[in-house]
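In response to reviewer comment 3 from the previous cycle, which asked for concrete evidence that the modeling workflow produces usable outputs, we include below a single protein chain processed end to end. The sequence was submitted unchanged, and the resulting structure tokens are shown without manual editing.
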Amino acid sequence: MPRIFLSHSSKDRQLADDLAELFRLHYVETWYSNRDILAGPWEPEIYKGLDLCDSFLVILSDDAICSEWVRKEVELAMQDPRYVERGRIVPVLARPCDWQTLHPEINCFQLVDFTADRDEAIRRLLHFWQIDRYVFPQFQVGGVLIPV
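The workflow returned the following structure tokens.
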């Protein structure tokens, strides 16, 4: 199974949370700053996360384009042959924006558009990683949904 690095602006946190949960319910590991940076300096943790993953997903919006860290993460991913040569960079459009300005080569990767049809976008994301979409029966323990 892949391990996916989720790059996002803090203003796109809700979609990042939703995607991290979607992947978790399908038993796909993600590296996600809200969950994986616990304490201490966060910059080295981002580099570790990029090294641990084999896929890179960037959530696109005007806020992401203006984010210094999203730009830096995208630049690092575009320099990493594990991501580029295997075609493992997935741009996800959260809100309409001029996303091609984020990096000169980002448009070489197929965009997944959450602004048009969310269910289709989810299907395409899961299909990209060859994951069948399941609707799991779930029960809640505290604030955590657990698939059974």
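Helices lie at 13-25, 33-36, 43-52, 62-66, 68-79, 81-84, 118-128. We consider this sufficient to address the reviewer's concern, and the full set will be provided in the supplementary archive.
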